[in-house]
Amino acid sequence: MKTRNRSEQSLKIVDCKICLEKMPLDKLGIHTRRHKMTSQQYYEVFIDKRKLCLVCNKETNYKNIVFGFNDFCSKSCRMKYQIINHPTFLSIAIKSRSSHKRTENEKNSARKTLAKLKQDPEF
Ligand SMILES: [Zn+2]
Ligand SMILES: [Zn+2]
Hints:
Blueprint: H1 6-11, E1 13-15, E2 22-24, H2 25-31, H3 39-47, E3 62-64, E4 68-69, H4 75-85, H5 88-97, H6 104-119
Antiparallel strand pairs: 1-2, 3-4
The structure holds zinc ion (ZN) (2 copies).
C-alpha cells in the first residue's frame, strides 16, 4: 500500500505544466480550473493515464491530483485483491474479531473459508 508518503507528496512543489507556475501538488488540483481543466483531466494528460481495476479491469474512480485513480473499482474488488495477495489477511481479520478467545477451531475454519474462496471460479 502506498500510504506512507501521502502528506509528503501533497506538499511536493511542482510546476504547472501549462503556465509553469510553481506550487504544492495539492494546490495544483485547484489551480487547473484556471486553465478550464478539472484536476482529473490534467492528471490524465500530464501525470498518468487512467488506471483500471487490478481485479476486474473496470475503470476506477479518480480521487485527486495527489493520489490519482483508485486501484480498485469497488470495495469488494479491494477485498478480493487483499485476500488473493495476502492469504493471511482473512485469518487476521477473523482472529482480530475474536482476539479475546482464540481457539484452534476458529483458525481451522478461517483456513477452510479461504480455501473455499480460492476455489470459487468467480474469484
Ligand atoms: Zn497553470
Ligand atoms: Zn473491480
